[in-house]
Amino acid sequence: MKKSTLTAAAALAFGFLAAEKAHSAPCLLITLTGVQGGPSTFNGQAGAGTLVQYGEDGNNCRDVSLQFDTGRGTTQRLFQAKTPVGRLNAIFFTHMHSDHSEGLADILQLRWHFNSAGPKVDIVCSEDAKVTGPLTYTISCRNFAAHIGDALIASGEISQRRRENQKRLEGGPSDLTNVMAFEPKDEPSVVWSSGDVKVSAIRSAHIAGHASYRVDTPAGSVVIGGDAGNDTRKPPRETSTSAQVELLAKDVDVIVHSVIHPVMGPGKGTGFPPPIYYRQSDASDLGAMAKRAGAKHLMLTHLIPPVGAPNQGPPYPLPDGPLTEDDYRDAVSSSGFSGNVVVGSDLATLRLPGQ
Ligand SMILES: [Zn+2]
């Protein structure tokens, strides 16, 4: 009798330990916060962005929350992903195009409104990149962050709301940013870390200052390619994908990447401008890259054209009608990639390790 009681107690204790262990197992959660490709709109899709979260099973992997790009509607998608904007530890930008960045004003204004006491949010992006030529310009994430609240200051709203609550910061939303700019290189370098989470960046081609990222955690790893394309801007070339992203993605678990379908290519009747086509990575080349890199999952996002859309934009109609998910899948599988393919939709998630 005594023996069996002890055994039962031991079993109970073991059960608790096992449950505790499962509860504290590390996990990585990847959520597409928006899959719209380019500045146009389709069917309520949010603009480009990916939420990467790391934590334990017991808190649904939500110890660290990192947002990569902040397209239109990111705030709403974050709410749906149970991650209020005040919970973001850092925001990373692949590049300064509005379809990847315009949601920042919304995120920071909301944070200033309700979380002015802080903490600041890290804004991680490339250092200023000057482009010389007929129309010399500088791509500047620093300026973007510094001036993110200017229209609201100019309209008088920031002052009006400060009179209501003087704890709100005087400089408006930009006072809540901590810009961590880096010089993108052709080799991965660590640009942000916290505890077990390490984020590396690499230079990639699309526009000046474009960078791609990799997050490494004990639960798994993910590469965020952004709109990266090959350094050689048009054929002849071996592939449309970025050699640097491929290097960054070596043996990674998941690649999240913007994609363009070959139907948008020159001569296919859409009228889509070839230079814009060639600066993206196409679906079959992404499959081939994922295969060479040894990735287990490929998440396609920023789909050009969107699944089900009669056109890209307007003004680029698809002569053979809207694409299906299978059209993207078929283009990827033609490369021989045999891993898991997610044809992205808003709020599509992937969790590592699998349950
Ligand atoms: Zn884009």
Description of the structure:
The protein is an alpha/beta fold. It has a single domain, classed as Ribonuclease Z/Hydroxyacylglutathione hydrolase-like (Metallo-beta-lactamase, Chain A). Helices cover 27% and strands 27% of the residues. The chain contains eleven helices and 18 strands. A seven-stranded mixed β-sheet has the order 8-5-4-3-2-1-18. Helix 10 (283-293) packs across helix 11 (325-333). The model is unreliable at 1-6 (pLDDT under 50). The structure holds zinc ion. Residues 38, 48, 97, 99-100, 227, 302 line the site of zinc ion.
How many β-strands, per DSSP?
Answer: 18
The order of strands across the largest sheet is 8-5-4-3-2-1-18
Please name the CATH topology: Metallo-beta-lactamase, Chain A
In quaternary terms, these chains amount to: single chain
Number of domains: 1
Question: Major β-sheet, in short?
Answer: 7 strands, mixed
**Could you name the CATH homologous superfamily?**
Ribonuclease Z/Hydroxyacylglutathione hydrolase-like
CATH class placement: Alpha Beta
SSE ordering: HEEEHEHHEEEHHHEEEEEHEHHEEEHEE
- In the predicted model, the low-confidence regions spanning at least 5 consecutive residues are 1-6
Shape: globular
Percentage beta strand = 25-35%
Helix content: 25-40%
- Our Rg estimate from Cα atoms comes to 22 Å
Query: Which molecules are bound besides the chains?
Result: zinc ion
